[in-house]
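User: These chains co-purify. Model them together.
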Amino acid sequence: MLVYTMRRILGALPVLVLASILTFVMIDVTGDPLADIRMAQPPPTEEVLQQAEERLYLDRSMPERYWLWVTGIGGNGDIGLLQGEFGPSTQGPHYDIGAAIAERLWTTLRLVGAAMIFALGLAIITGVVSALRQYSKLDYTLTFVGFLALALPTFWFAGIMQAAGVKFNQLVGDQVFATIGDGRFRAEGAPLWDQFLNAFAHMALPTIVLMLISFASWSRYQRTSMLEVMNSDYVRLARAKGLRNHTVIRRHALRTALIPLTTVVAIGVAGVIDGAILTEVVFQWRGLGDFFITAVDNNDSFALMGWLLLSGTIVILANLVADLLYAVLDPRIRYE
Amino acid sequence: MTTEYENKEHTAVADTDDVVLEVSDLSVTFPSDDGPLPAVRQVSYKVRRGEALGIVGESGSGKSVTSMAIMGLLPRNARVEGSARLLGQEIIGLNDKQISEVRGQRIAMIFQDPLTSLNPVYTIGYQIAEAVLAHRKVGKKVAMARALELLEIVGIPSPEQRLRQYPHELSGGMRQRVVIAIAMANDPDVIIADEPTTALDVTVQAQVLDALQRAREETGAALVLITHDLGVVAGQVDRVGVMYAGRIVEMGSVEEVFYRPRMPYALGLLGSLPRLDGDRGDRLTPILGAPPSLRDLPGGCGFAPRCPMARERCHEEEPRLLLIENGPQEGEATAHTAACHFSEELVDAEASDLFRSTSVDTEGLGSVAEMEAAEAHVAEAREGYLGELGAEADREVAAKAEPEVLLTATDLVKHFPIRSKGLMRRRVGEVQAVSGISLDLRERETLALVGESGCGKSTTARLLLNLIKLTSGEVSYMGQPLQDLSDRRMRPLRKDLQLVFQDPFASLDPRMTVSDIIAEPMRIHGSGHRDARKRVSELLELVGLNPEHGSRYPHEFSGGQRQRIGVARALSLNPRVLVLDEPVSALDVSIQAGVINLLEDLQDELGLSYLFVSHDLSVVKHIADRVAVMYLGKMVETATTDQLFSAPAHPYTQALISAIPLPDPVKERTRERITVTGDIPSPANPPSGCRFRTRCPKFANELSDAERARCVEEPPELKDRGTGHRDACHYSKAIELI
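Assistant: Joint model of the two components:
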């Protein structure tokens, strides 16, 4: 198991390096960070431009810039991922990309985490119920709901939910759902219960929006996987041993049917991060989604690179965790 | 005098107290879009304490469904009617709590595929202990101790270590023994074994049947053994029931049913079976037609459409399962019953009296008359075909001359690299699939390559056709070395060397019509496109199929018919050599017989040479002229079929022949056996010296230490023991086994 773990971790490292190169090159060749300044009226002086180029390290060659971005060696102390610096921003010398990401990371992770946990829980429950009651009315209903959820575009559904939240608040005459903002700083220092209510009010609707797509595909997956296991010989043998139905389902069917889901969920992390951008924009959260949009608007290369590498790292980490979890769940992998 | 066996009063009176399982009028119906499917119809039988009852039948006869119904393991939508009483308790229709107290405790079950019967994520020990804990209020320690004891009983070496292992670390034979251990965990009264050895190699099958026997002795359980293998039934059970189209059509003691069958189907099954104890010249007699679809069963006797004795009454009235006249009567444990209106006509009948040995595809035909017409048609077609080929003349010449050697292999070696799983994919070892095989195939001869799974026989066949690259050695066709030929230069030779695959379902492209499939080789070789259509219909006739069916797709044909299509495709280029890789092992016996007959006819008429790869020694004995036995990539013995089967010399060949169950109860129970222990070692790490020594009974029991040292150190050469009979054993001694 230790060897397996080490091998997986070592295997993730080159992927990470490759991801950083791809991220850098893709952002670096698209767009000019100084485009806005160049187009400004009146045109900036040569000196101003030169200063800006120097500050953003645009006076160096691309390989040099990559090396600088990663290591920070030869920079002005504001760059170098390995030193914890994300690089200078086009949004002014005082804008610290690292600090901005750190501030927003928790907001977004909270949303992504909650959405994934709820999506996973619901997907397992509905998948199992659907499989156990295959071709029943319940199964058909859940299948319909699943496909409906798959078909809803996130931004549109987010808008609908927001409108519905407003309507609901009007109906009950109280602000049950907060439809704008993440509300992180509103309840600071308040009693725990108030903090919870505040978090719930702000998070409920975005979480539902974000979880829906993953839930739909995962529950379909869990249903198939469960059906396959329920028809397997070892489930029949477990019954033939004289185990009660609920024991067979829990111990023999569900336990093995969960194994393939770990991979699917790990791959799904990227999709959830995508969805988070849209959801945050609609609900006007100051999260990483908003950070991303702002960075694009400002041609802020280093901010974009930082964001992309961070989400890439999260995806790689999620897959690493899934690989390790897989080994825990399935002895056939462990002893490979 | 005829007594009605189905009559309730009779069954109630007869032997009451020692019956452990009594099934009466059990029927199972599955709903489907096209209406209900009656999978099992009014099955009744009794099993007495300690008795072994066999249920035989071909696929789809309802034999597995019956036992699943008894265990309550059918899907929810199946409708089960009738009754099954276990020690007097009705077990059909129990709720989950009630049935779970019966299952595993009083009645246990063993399934067909040991590779999928155990849960991959739990240890062996856990899975056995779980069965104990399900019924006994004992601690985990006690349950584990019991698991250990059970593993010892079923003969698993180093059981303590095995307890902590996961299923994937055990071989198929071992896993089936674990399943047997689970079945016997709570000393059940009845064990149902559903094809327990079908997925296993023969030598392993013998070991698993032994374990099953020990489990019965240990628990005193009665056994219901479901199988399609008449040989296994002959050796293992006291009484046997034959199932056909969802019904039991004949039942009695094994001796009665095997020696004096009174239902044409049972007789037909026995006649269509190639036998290890039969003569090579005997023609097999396939049963006409195919089993009826459950969707639309014939009105009268289910077998009538295929029965050569069927008369009007048979088509109108379904015969009941009746005691046969002058047979052992009811009350005696050996009552012989048969469901045939004319069973008395079958006294002393032989299969060949009733069934014709034919090679035409009988599955689409409705009557004997139709078959005769088809045969005449095929004969005509073949004559025309041969005339065109001018093969007639060739044949005359060839018959006189010394048969020419077509294909020669010298010292074939094929190693497959094993690579590490890491990024580097380092080469960490190699599977020695074929290690020094030499053989030659002569004109119009059938050479059989036999051995168990993993012995390298299929790899050898592919090497001979130059389909995979040799590691070393030489293959030549008519004197021309093949191994160094480029694909382009190999292509013209491929016309002469064709291949028929094992799996008739996977080897035909489902999106092509049968005509296109058969014409494809001709298209590739740019020959015969002018009259390809004509040639395709000739070929279809040649293999006994209706040429009008050329426009159909493969899924419209049965397994046997598809295998015929595969043969037709292989023949389309007029090859001289056919490599047949397990061509009949996926087929039911009654279908298999027709394909074997076809292969024999084609060889006679077209002068083909066959390399016949098979694990089934009975089929090999029937069809081959010479046999080469392989074990772990080495050839251990080669001789003519007569020599090999009458006096096998290598201990492995002897064990292999011993392990094939004979479909003859008396012979099967009294024959001398050479048994081997353990599993085939990994070809990645074969034993030093003689590769068979780790399992060799001679090595284990007869040899002195000095003699053994030679087996360990010196790999035995293939040596001639006179008259071309060669074996690779330092201490070989021919013995007679059949």
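The longest strand of chain B covers residues 427-442.
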